[in-house]
Amino acid sequence: MISLHRGTIDDPIFSFETRVCPLALAVVTVIFDHDPAVIAVVDETQYLGRRVHIHRDHQNTPIRLELAVSPDAASATNLAEANAHALLNTRASTP
Length: 95
Hints:
Elements: E1 2-6, E2 14-18, H1 25-29, H2 36-48, E3 50-56, E4 64-71, H3 81-90
Antiparallel strand pairs: 1-2, 2-3, 3-4
């Protein structure tokens, strides 16, 4: 259920996506003391069928939880950089 992008969860700088659609909203948000901002992100994530992206870009900065681009049921795929840019262009995204 977790797809690491950078570092590990124990590192001061990390980035990963995780599936939340198969889980109950309360089960996910209890980890964050049912913070209303977290509930909003997880609710939108589940409604859209996406994953959540959790990351910390710099040491001693807050951990961020955001809506990921990848669909919840999608498996991770490694692409060559040119192919990845072509795929992003078809989705009208920027790298």
